[in-house]
Amino acid sequence: MISRIIPTALALALVSGCTVGRDYAPPELQTNEGWPAELEGGVTNQTADLRGWWRGFSDPTLDSLVDRALAGSLELKDAAARVREARALRGVTAADGLFSVDARGSASYQRSSENTFGGPGGLPGENTDLYDVGFDATWELDVFGRVRRSVEAADAEVDSAVESQRDARVVLLAEVARNYAEYRSAQARLGIAQENVATQQDTLSLTQDRLTAGLSSELDVARALAQLESTRSQIPLLAAALRRAAFRLDVLLGLVPGTLAPELGPIAPVPSTPPSVAIGLPAELVRRRPDVR
């Protein structure tokens, strides 16, 4: 009996070594330990900590917008759903190599006709209970590695969905910060334009008074009026840019356009840049990019 088992075990061991495909090994990337380029003031070679990069602007409103975007963005919710889908499909794929049991059972009630004599139902008019119970066990012997390779492919799909979710997060936070900076910039420019209109209106009035007194010409009045109207024409454009930036922030946060207008209405400065920016090595940037990963 032992002489039969040993050759069979050896044969199975040899066949199991013939797994479908080769094991994947990521390529090795040789990089320098330092970046030799000359850096200007405020830029360092240190590794950047990007876990909360937006907090470096020291703007509480921006911090609040980012937190709400992470919680309410429809893009992130869609990406999270794709991650859950990939993980569920991975579980289905891995189930092919698991032991499964299929149980069944049935029960029936039978009454023999009073016009029959004997038979499987018993005596005429007699009641009979019938029961049937059974089970079936199956599994797949993964000799050639089909299930293992399928699971590895499913794991790669899960990793891809996770990195796509991270990519959506990176894009979302960048868009929130950019549109918030554009909003504050348009707000500041609109305020400056309105102040210039008031100043140029006073200049026009003074020029007209000088014309009445014979100290100025009609050409000076025309120039002052043209300058005033040119500045006035910029105000609707800046107001429209202000509304567009606010509406984009509403969409990014998953809100109805116009929701953030009262909150963003009070004038606030444009977010200031951090005192220093850590750029690290170019290879580190490649490793961080979700699309490359």
Give a verbal description of the structure.
The protein is mainly α and 293 residues long. Helices cover 55% and strands 10% of the residues. It has a two-stranded parallel ribbon with strand order 1-4. α2 (60-72) crosses α4 and α3 (74-94) runs antiparallel to α4. The two termini are 54 Å apart. Mean pLDDT is 79; it is low at 12-17.
Describe the secondary-structure layout:
Layout: H1 2-16, E1 43-44, H2 60-72, H3 74-94, E2 100-111, E3 127-138, H4 146-212, H5 218-252, H6 261-264, E4 277-278, H7 282-288
Parallel strand pairs: 1-4
Antiparallel strand pairs: 2-3
Low-pLDDT segments:
12-17
Radius of gyration computed on alpha carbons: 38 Å
Principal-axis shape:
elongated
- Largest beta-sheet characterization: 2 strands, parallel
Structural class: mainly alpha
Q: Which series of helices and strands comes N to C?
A: HEHHEEHHHEH
User: Strand fraction band?
Assistant: 5-15%
Helix content percent band: 55-70%
Per DSSP, the total helix count is 7
Largest sheet, order of strands side by side?
A: 1-4
Mean pLDDT across every amino acid position: 79
Task: State the distance separating the first and last CA atoms.
Answer: 54 Å
Number of strands: 4
Give a quick precis of the structure.
The protein is mostly helical and 293 residues long.
Which tags fit this structure?
293 residues; mainly alpha; two-stranded parallel sheet
